[in-house]
## 1
Amino acid sequence: VMGSGKFCFVPKGKSAWSLRFFEASFANCVPVVLSDFWELPFESIIDLPSFVIKWPMEMVGDTLMEYLESISDSTLQQYMDMGKVWRCWYVYPPLLHEIASKSPDELHELCPELERENAFEAIMRLLAAKMRRSWTMTRYFGPQNFEDMIRRVREVDAKETE
């Protein structure tokens, strides 16, 4: 089902990591993260807003669906193309003896730079920098005047509750 849609919803999981995010990265769809406080993996080395939409939980519903329907096919294609650029950073490379004993497989076709661009290398970069600041935890992002739309919807909601 995931590979047949333009968008893949990634709701928060029970831990700091969700397999759905990994699956969405390889399903050739745009991951739509539905979690307000989830810190996305490798945010300091990967350009997450280039291929991920992070949506506020308070606005999940018709507003989300209308927004996703409004995104142009060319923007969707850009997101999917960038997803292909970054997705291999979420793969752990095979062990050295597995590489030596096998010919290149489908994973290496999808991730030709797997030896340099993988989850292990990303973790090593993060540890080297010893950085622990999240910019995705409380921020929402997406294409096409996203922040203006969020502000307008919140203003309408505030007026309705007065």
Note: The beta strands are 7-11, 30-34, 53-55.
## 2
Amino acid sequence: PKQAFGYGEVAPKGAPGFEGVQLKPPETIGDTIKYISKGMTTIPTKKEIIEAIGYPGQKHSAGGISTVGRIYYGPGRYDYGRPPMPAGWFANWFYGFWEFGHIMFVADRWIAMRYLRHFLGTAVCFFPMWLQ
């Protein structure tokens, strides 16, 4: 399957969101440790950094509100097809919060880097005016 946009492979080895522990919210302490250690402590890939910074002619995707796509998408990703729901009530209760954090900091962390880019760019442009 073709990815939404970007360059390179659809699901390269080591891409975020494809690990077994990242397919659904962790429900045990062991799964939580594996989830955090694998998903939130890995260095962003070159592809994620380039897509976060942006480049002339960068393609966009038919997304929801902000029209951003997924640069890594295909069979094996947690939201490909019908996402498996957690079994426990605690994980189900907080699924929305997990989903937001998972998208922003694990699976599609280039979107969080893009938000950081906008925040820092605005701060740099605002600071000289604030000094006056």
Note: DSSP finds five helices and no strands in the chain.
## 3
Amino acid sequence: EPLTFLEHEERNCLVTLMEDELQALFSEKPELELMVNEKEYIRLQELFKKERLGSLEREVVKLTETLDELTNQVTLLEAENEKLTKKHAKEMRRASASSTSSPGTSSRTLWQDQRTPSVERQRGTGE
């Protein structure tokens, strides 16, 4: 068959066009279907089915490869997320430990934080 020498995409495109045109022709003139060589018509229908199946199988392979790649990316991102979460927790513990180790500093900071808005208010109003 001449179609065997075409690339998969070209072959699929050509077979799809042939199938669409044949269906359109038979829709226009149903009596033509009665004049067609039955064995050849069945053979052609099998070719259409085979091409659709092959196309779907190639699509499944591509989608499976994409799924595998995305699964690997998710695994890497989850591992990175876990690492960052642990690092963040460690930093939070370190910050918490340093603020509780010197109570005078944390009280002073709280006192300065409470005082700061009124000081800024006085500066803003010109008092």
Note: Helices lie at 8-28, 31-35, 38-101, 103-125.
## 4
Amino acid sequence: LFLKPQIRIEAGGGNDQQQVSFSVHRGALMYSLPLGLNFTAVGTYIPDEAPWGIPGHTDYRVLPTTAWAYALDADPQEPGASMSFESIGYEYPRAPFNHTLSPCVVHAVMRPLTSPAWGEYMNGAAPVPAS
């Protein structure tokens, strides 16, 4: 069996036509921008004090260490015109969903958004800015 799915762009999110977000897919996989992340422990629970009956766990605050606010410069009707797929290939024992050594990538043109175009809101990404 040999499948060669095409790259597609799907619209979603936002509450009107001016605030639509887009996601990049190829086959069953959705692709994302790789981000640098900083994990800071903000609470650790020992078994006797664990809420919800979960024995020993830690809560983390996760913040980006790399830029994350980008606009995808692509035509949703013809994504193959400006985006390309590259299969690096799977090599044992790399995990297929490893964030650092992904066996496949999609190359795309991205445009950085500068503040205040897209910022943070309530400890997360603010609503998607108008296109």
Note: The mean pLDDT is 81.
